[in-house]
Amino acid sequence: MKMYSKSLNFYYGDFQALHDVNLEFQKNQVTALIGPSGCGKSTFLRCLNRMNDLIPISRVEGDIMLEGMNIYDAKVDVVELRRRVGMVFQKPNPFPKTIFENVAYGLRVNGVKDKTYLEDKVEESLKHAALWEEVKDRLHSSALGLSGGQQQRLCIARALAVEPEILLMDEPASALDPIATQKIEELIHILKRKYTIIIVTHSMQQAARVSDVTAFFYMGRLIEVGDTEKMFTRPSNKQTEDYITGRFG
Amino acid sequence: METHFHAQLEKMRVKVLEMSAYAQKAIEDACRALLTRDSDLAQKVIDGDIIINKLECEIDDMTLRLLALDQPMAVDLRAIVGMMRVSVNLERVGDEAVNIAEKAMFLATRPPLPFSEQLQELSDIALDMFRAAITAFREGDPDLSREICSWDSQCNAQDVKVIKDLVNYMGKEAPAVERAVSTILTSRSLERIGDLSTNIGEAVVFIVEGVSIKHRLCR
Ligand SMILES: Nc1ncnc2c1ncn2[C@@H]1O[C@H](COP(=O)(O)OP(=O)(O)O)[C@@H](O)[C@H]1O
Ligand SMILES: [Mg+2]
């Protein structure tokens, strides 16, 4: 087991957004988090690399363990944690810099200066993100000139450059057209050989296509988690079944 | 919430039930034609098979459309796959009814063999199995479905007995060989109807519970 949450509660001020969530993530597996809008998927995802720390009124109870380390422990270096647990957001958010500098950014922040190392790492990351062939001749032009799908893969390359172990993705394809979406999904299949991936998606079909394990959230609670194949063919829980067969509400 | 998709799924279910009603009528009439030596009724069964075939095609189309356009999940996905299996088996039941009707037409033109009681017994079992399979499908009843599977050995045993007696009979009554062979084939058709009913029961268990009990592998 790579990472797990134990009795996790999360509050935005008085509002409790997560209730007693216990969820495990296996190494080199893709876990999809599904559930209706507002059920707490993004909140949970952001707990996994302490992105919620940035929200002043928020409060966490319970544990999140990353290979034996409690990530909410006072001793934890949050910058190092976020290197190990990278994140890709819904809207591609490249910096207004060159393609090269976008990917090199995390390395520079971590103090890397060696030019050859930087170049090698940028190339490798772009290759892993399946973007290299499309941008290798224009590494020094602005990242903002890329298409939405290319920008999202650039953000994935940027996340990969610092050699994370876990990749969190919050609806990474929801702003993309079907072809760009398919490229991201194919990429996820390849990336899981090396990384542990946790993806939030509002598309049940996407969850079914890319994930090994699916977790269904409803109103801040984890209702059911299981092998994706089982979840989408014979879920155990009635609420899960109602949600994935569109009988909700 | 009744969605457009679920209305379509219900239409498919109604179509499968319609097909099963035709298939039931076909085997009931085929058995009656055989036992009462009624060639006209047998001819009706043969002519009526086209309706069952047409319904199978319509159900195939619905299956593809629903799978492609709605990408169903969980119980909905199982219902579609399961109903397609049911319709495949109903079409074969229709074919067996035609096989029985063809033999019935031939046998009606020749002197009867002393096997009508045994055939009656076998056709009763096969028809009971089929009717129960349709009830299990209509009601979504996995318990009844499992019961049907357990009746199949009785059906097989009766078929084996009929065939053995007919083979013995042929040894003694050379002029009856052609009739006896036709009767053996009829017995085989009835036994097949038992198998096909079992398959339908298995499809019902799959729809309701999501488990496969085929070939006694996962029971
Ligand atoms: N920054 C915030 N401050 C207060 N409440 C929030 C904040 N972010 C999310 N919420 C609330 O927490 C709940 C879960 O939200 P979220 O995790 O974004 O759900 P999901 O990703 O499943 O759509 C919702 O009721 C939402 O309104
Ligand atoms: Mg969200």
Walkthrough of the structure:
The complex is a heterodimer of chains A (249) and B (219). Chain A has 249 residues and is α/β, with parallel strands linked by helices. In chain A, 37% of the residues lie in helices and 26% in strands. Chain A is built from ten helices and ten strands. Chain A has helices at residues 41-47, 78-84, 99-109, 115-128, 132-135, 148-161, 178-191, 204-210, 228-233, 238-244; strands at 3-12, 15-25, 30-34, 58-66, 69-70, 85-88, 166-170, 196-200, 213-218, 221-227. Chain A has a six-stranded mixed β-sheet with strand order 6-7-8-3-9-10, with helices on both faces. In chain A, helix 3 runs parallel beside helix 6 (148-161). The longest helix of chain A has 14 residues, at 115-128. The model of chain A has no long low-confidence stretch (mean pLDDT 95). Chain B is an all-alpha fold and 219 residues long. Chain B has a single domain, classed as Up-down Bundle (Methane Monooxygenase Hydroxylase, Chain G, domain 1), CATH 1.20.58. Chain B has six helices and no strands. Chain B has helices at 4-36, 39-70, 74-108, 116-139, 142-172, 177-209. The longest helix of chain B has 35 residues, at 74-108. The radius of gyration of chain B is 19 Å and the shape is elongated. The two termini of chain B are 34 Å apart. The A-B interface holds A 204-205, 208, 232-235, 240-241, 244-249 and B 1, 3, 5-6, 71-78, 209-211. The complex binds adenosine-5'-diphosphate and magnesium ion. Adenosine-5'-diphosphate is lined by residues 12, 15, 17, 35, 37-43, 55 of chain A.
